[in-house]
Amino acid sequence: MADIHRLESPTRNAGKATVYGAWERFVQGEDDIRGVRPEVALSWHRCRDQYRVDPYLTEAPEAATDVDHTLEHGVVFAELGFRAASVVDDVSKIGGVVTVADASGRVLAEWGDKATRSFAAKANLAPWFCWSEGATGTNGMGTALEAHTPVVIRGAEHWCQAFHDWTCAGVAVRDVVTKEPVAVLNISCWRSDLPAPVGAWLSNAASRTQFMLRRRARDAGAELVAAYNHARSRSSGGLAAVDPAGRVVIADDAASVLLGVPSSTPAPDPAMRWNPGLPGLTRATRYAAKQAACNPAWVGSTQIFTHLADEPTPITIRPVFLSGHLVGNLISFGVHEGEQLPRTEGGGGAHDQDQASRIVAMRENRMVLLRPPEVAFAESDGNDVWLSTDQGRLRANRPALDKLERELGGTGFLRVHRQFVVNLSRIREVERGFKGELALVMDNEASTMVPVSRRNAPAVRRALGI
Description:
Layout: H1 9-14, H2 16-27, H3 38-50, H4 71-85, H5 88-93, E1 96-102, E2 107-112, H6 114-122, H7 133-136, H8 140-146, E3 151-154, E4 166-174, E5 181-190, H9 197-232, E6 239-242, E7 248-251, H10 253-259, H11 279-294, E8 300-304, E9 313-322, E10 325-333, E11 339-340, H12 343-346, E12 359-363, E13 366-370, E14 375-381, E15 384-389, E16 392-396, H13 401-407, E17 413-417, E18 420-423, E19 427-432, E20 438-442, E21 449-451, H14 457-464
């Protein structure tokens, strides 16, 4: 994980006056934010246009009281609390406070300099108040929960003017399977800068906590493999074990063909699991997780489109637990048992309800807000995702093609290859190879030819009616 202090220099170079001037213009509705770091600009955009946070808010609101935490989350809170408590003396010496908050932005505990804590109390930077971006705008804790990297928010980079005297550095700890945030660790100083070692310490604390989560995830994967082996002797059809994110831990011969993954190859380590690229399966497993949390004995069924099949395949989903913690599901193919899932959650080919109204791209330090029809396709290139748009080739603000694919669900985009998601309405021609392989000619200026992988070809044919 990158050290936070490496992210500080752009703001120093920009200058406080430049950032404050951009803030004044942006809160008045202008989009001229020259001199503002891209990650801060994106946060401001969310605060103004998505969350509609009052920039003149003077204190954080009370946090929701009905937030449930799993035992797994409790382990993370305890680990971060231990690490925060171990540096209280050092944090106090720099006049800082260190906080731990949950995934909703609710502050759980606070330590540090007594005088600074009194200033913090005036802004409700204290336990049981909410510092998510949606509640309190751009800040160390809330913005770290939104980002996948450590963040520093200094002075006028805060969305709310009342917090412009603060400098905050935060890093989120994420579930190693679902990638969803679990908690956030933050250090704040009032009217002073944070020393460079703060970044290294936060990164180290988060890394050690993530290491613990990876170890527990491997144990969970081993439990999934054991449950699969037990059920395999009684299964007559295809069988697979998938984690809560819908990634395959192990599949038999029949299921591996439908999922497009290796057969009978266990992958208890979350870093080695396979993403079958089937939105219906992902929706079904997410729905199953919600139901199993309320009823561990829950069993459900639905139909999903699989690879190399023109018709939807029935599946039955059975949750698997380890010490009361959901670790994944057993998927039985060709079987209908248990509660029928709602079509919008896991049904055959139904679109997501949350349609992306805007796609955010970056041109240097400016955000470019695109409507879905303006994007021909998205291409993964290393750690970046590039968009072919009517305004040229732009870098997406999302670093993962999988996440962009989920956000574009229901807007006419389809995954056609592990590196490409295309806008179906922007396909000009379809070329067939000698062995039946497909390639899509897009209607962008370069008439780019996008390959279609063998396992995605049936879905492309269905979508195009060919």
